[in-house]
């Protein structure tokens, strides 16, 4: 039996907790019917919360006879966004579970709770893309990648976006019970199997929480020029820095090279035009700064994970015609 603990910390979204419960309970029922395809694994789902005034976490629900220590602990999103600090009881409980061999996971703003354990240092993790700047400031040693919806780093799994709990659940089901059970769950709930990315939905939310005033000037210049004025001498002049110094400090402060940064600015602007206008795709590429249509399509696909035409078909309003 694999016990999955859903941790109901203060402000945790109850809809996510109940939805995950439904997915995991369904996965267990399918596993019972298809034992050979589930690798013999079975799931139990438990809910954990603070007990009384002590703050100590206790199991308050279980779908069956639960063991003492859960194998997986999941921190759901919070309706009111990231909390400023995690209480010591929660932090200690999570670290104890991790030391006992449990996999720890978070969804959206739940990453801030999990991050306070210190387990994100030098790891690739994700959270909702709108929290990226705040996340980088709070956890500077984490390698945050908000292009991804789920990052499975073995003993720590992170998911970005409030509804990314569906992706996280399917990832866990596939990992512990096999692809056959995961596909059956996805089919039954009419949800996409793992594979979509947060980059499909996100805008560009650059990190401005650093303290490098010279680089902030360059970021402001790039924002106002919509990433169209990008030659390094001009950017260096904006910062009053030598070119090599600019390039080094820019990447350290923002997490991106200057080239990657202005490409993401342009692609973010292109996504807005693809969603809300009938302009031809080549025209949009030109408008955001690309004179070569093939270069625009290549960069767009690399950053977003979809071609411009696929992105438009998926996200444009219904009455818009595709180019």
Walk me through what this model shows.
It is built from 13 helices and 9 strands. The strands form 2 sheets. The protein has a 7-stranded mixed sheet with strand order 3-2-1-4-5-9-8. By secondary structure, it is α/β, with parallel strands linked by helices. The protein is 46% helix and 12% strand. Residues 318-323 have low confidence and may be disordered. The termini are far apart. The relative contact order is 0.09. Helix 5 (165-177) packs antiparallel against helix 6 (179-189). It has helices spanning 14-33, 88-99, 110-115, 132-138, 165-177, 179-189, 213-224, 232-239, 243-254, 258-276, 281-288, 293-304, 308-315, and strands spanning 2-7, 43-50, 57-62, 72-75, 103-107, 124-125, 143-144, 150-152, 156-159. It has 2 domains: 2-200, 3-Layer(aba) Sandwich (Rossmann fold), CATH 3.40.50.880; 213-315, Homeodomain-like (Arc Repressor Mutant, subunit A). The longest helix is centred in the N-terminal third of the chain and has 20 residues, at 14-33. A hairpin with a 3-residue loop joins strand 8 (150-152) and strand 9 (156-159).
Give the count of helical stretches: 13
Termini separation (Å)? 52 Å
Q: Please give the share of residues in helix.
A: 40-55%
Globally, the shape reads: globular
Mean of all residue-level pLDDT scores: 92
Over all CA atoms, what is the radius of gyration? 22 Å
Strand percent estimate? 5-15%
Going across the biggest sheet, name each strand in turn. Answer: 3-2-1-4-5-9-8
Assigned CATH architecture of the largest domain: 3-Layer(aba) Sandwich
Q: What is the level 1 CATH name of the largest domain? A: Alpha Beta
Largest sheet: 7 strands, mixed
What is the assigned CATH homologous superfamily of the largest domain?
Class I glutamine amidotransferase (GATase) domain
The name CATH uses for the topology of the largest domain is Rossmann fold
């Amino acid at each position: 039996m694999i016990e999955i603990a859903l941790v109901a910390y203060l402000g945790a979204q109850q809809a996510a907790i109940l939805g995950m419960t439904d997915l995991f309970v369904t996965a267990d029922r399918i596993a019972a019917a298809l034992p050979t395809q589930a690798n013999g694994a079975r799931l139990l789902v438990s809910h954990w919360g603070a007990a009384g005034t002590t703050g100590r976490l206790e199991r308050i629900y279980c779908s069956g006879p639960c063991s003492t220590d859960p194998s997986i602990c999941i921190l759901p999103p919070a309706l009111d966004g990231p909390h400023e600090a995690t209480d010591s009881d929660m932090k200690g409980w999570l670290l104890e579970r991790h030391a006992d061999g449990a996999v720890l996971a978070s969804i959206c703003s739940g990453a801030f709770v999990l991050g306070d354990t210190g387990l994100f240092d030098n790891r690739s993790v994700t959270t909702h893309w709108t929290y990226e700047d705040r996340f980088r400031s709070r956890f500077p040693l984490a390698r945050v990648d908000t292009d991804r919806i789920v990052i499975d780093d073995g003993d720590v799994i992170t998911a970005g976006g409030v509804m990314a709990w569906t992706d996280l659940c399917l990832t866990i089901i596939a990992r512990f019970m096999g692809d056959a059970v995961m596909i059956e769950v996805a089919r039954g709930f009419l949800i996409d199997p793992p594979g979509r990315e947060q980059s499909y939905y996100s805008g560009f939310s650059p990190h401005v929480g650093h303290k490098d005033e010279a680089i902030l000037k360059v970021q402001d210049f790039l924002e106002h020029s919509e990433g169209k004025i990008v030659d390094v001498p001009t950017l260096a002049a904006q910062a009053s820095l030598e070119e090599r110094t600019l390039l080094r400090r820019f990447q350290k402060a923002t997490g991106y090279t200057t080239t990657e940064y202005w490409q993401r600015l342009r692609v973010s602007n292109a996504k807005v035009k693809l969603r809300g206008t009938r302009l031809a795709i080549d025209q949009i590429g030109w408008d955001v700064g690309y004179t070569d249509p093939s270069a625009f399509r290549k960069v767009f696909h690399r950053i977003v994970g979809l071609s411009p035409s696929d992105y438009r078909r998926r996200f444009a309003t219904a009455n818009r015609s595709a180019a």
